[in-house]
Amino acid sequence: MRFTSEQRLEDGLLEREFTLDDIPAILWTPQSASASAPAPLILLGHPGGLAQMRPRLAARARRSALDGFATATIELPGGGERPALPAVDKARADLRRALAAGQPVSDEIVHRLILPLVDAAVPEWQAALDAILPLPELSERVGYSGGPIAIGIRLARVEPRITAAGLFAGSYVPADMIEEARNVTIPVHVLLQWDDRGNDRQMALDLFDAIGSTEKTLQANLGGHTGVPPHAGDEAARFFARHLKASS
User: Residue of 91, 147, 149, 241 with fewest CB within 10 Å of its CB?
Assistant: First the structure.
């Protein structure tokens, strides 16, 4: 891990850009975090294109900092300036053609689009944790927040350092991931926009039903993909406060 820039934002939040084996990444640390009072960490998932997503990610980081949480994010494989993934790009084009033609999106397209991203991204998130968590101002309690939801499901299943997951149901989910969800046992909070045209609502409901956690919550709101109401963020914040602060 190599830090490449550092700035203290107007609200006291420390923003540091870094690279991890040439993967662009950002770490936000609240002013309250220190070696004597380390902050829990929330990983901010997003659909790729870190430069374009940065304002929204920074807003999420600021909201989390109000509750005493540090946050971090990395660029997805194939996103931004990272090398393209031709097979994934072709699957994405096939999906868009199917939607434009009013045709159903086949399981085969979803598998080609999502599974390579999951297989590549999850080890990178784990490597980021390996690099970030030794910082003295961070505690060992970690959450994951965001999407794509399939990446969050895989991380929740295989990464023991993640103790709570807030997942955004805004992307397609391969059938294989629904089976994986049965082995997720940590607390999960799923946000679903009921009228999201780019998301298969029934698929999201089936995924939630399959999650094996004894504590899981589904928050469904009317509106499209970008119509998430402000109070949804407050509910997610309370979820992480319950599960990341209790033993920190």
Answer: 241
Where does the chain show beta strands of DSSP type E? 2-8, 14-20, 23-29, 39-44, 70-74, 138-146, 162-168, 188-193, 216-221
| C-alpha–C-alpha distance, residues 168 and 190, integer Å | 6
Structure tokens of 85? 């993934």
The helix/strand/coil state of 133 is coil
CA angle 201, 202, 208 (to 5 degrees): 95
* Mean of pLDDT values over 202-230: 89
Taking the C-alpha atoms of residue 121 and residue 65, their distance in angstroms, rounded to an integer, is: 25
Residue 179 structure tokens: 């089976």
Q: Give domain 2-82+117-244's CATH architecture.
A: 3-Layer(aba) Sandwich (3.40)
pTM of the model: 0.94
Alpha-carbon distance of 208 to 178, in angstroms, equals 9
Q: What CA–CA distance (Å, rounded) separates 141 from 22? A: 26
